[in-house]
Amino acid sequence: MARIESGIPSLVLTLLGLLAYGSIVLNREMFLLLSLNVFLLQAVFFLLDKRKSFLLLAVYLFLLCFYYVWKAFTIPADLRPQGQWIVEQLVFSLTTIAGWLLSKTVRQWMDETENLRLKLKELGKVDEKFDVFTFQEFVEKAKMLFHGALRRNERLISLIVALPAELDDYKLNVSFEKLCETWKQCVRSYYDVVGMLDNRRLIILLSNAQPETVERVVDRFYRKWNGGFPVEIRYQEWNFKDWESVERELTIWKGEKTSQS
Known about the structure:
Layout lengths: L1 H24 L2 H20 L2 H25 L7 H41 L12 H18 L3 E7 L6 H18 L6 E6 L2 E7 L3 H14 L7 E6 L5 H18 L1
Antiparallel strand pairs: 1-3, 1-4, 2-3
Protein name: GGDEF domain-containing protein
Keywords: Membrane, Transmembrane, Transmembrane helix
């Protein structure tokens, strides 16, 4: 993946360099034709799969070669600008090849990015329905934040947010989806973590937080929350000295489901 990403800028520079060279050695009409040719073909190459786009590239190069051979046979020898024709054919061929390579590299990068996204979902890192971290992935994210906070001597504060236990299954499902969406709007996406404890409880970890930070976040939540009933919110500052203590506490919180249900 990294090799593909690093190859894209060099291909872009190559294509732009060839176009710049074409603007110097070709007349205005031929350069406009070259630009149109490259960008139209690149769009077609991008839409086709690799085998079909390569076949189209080969056909194009063959027809380009045939065109200049045909010109050589139909124009008198004393009127043939052989040097200019060679330059034109070379520029058209190389820019088309560079455009094909660029379109296929971008397409491969997009496909691999999508495959990676699907694999992450398959691994259960993000709950597909509620779009928040699963408990297992929350633990992994919390571990990174915990070690970073220890190094920087920062505070971590966790919130456990619970829906009323008496909700029926349908209302619980709808309300929990709304709860997840509301909390995602209330926290900082790059600094805080929202995860699932179970199907009615969220756990939220606020990084570099102060007690007043919690108050602001909770106030923001209540201004946005329109679920029609109150939710239980309790918070705890993380004064743990090692990750093993955090894991034990998280396991206890996770297991509270049976005692509260």
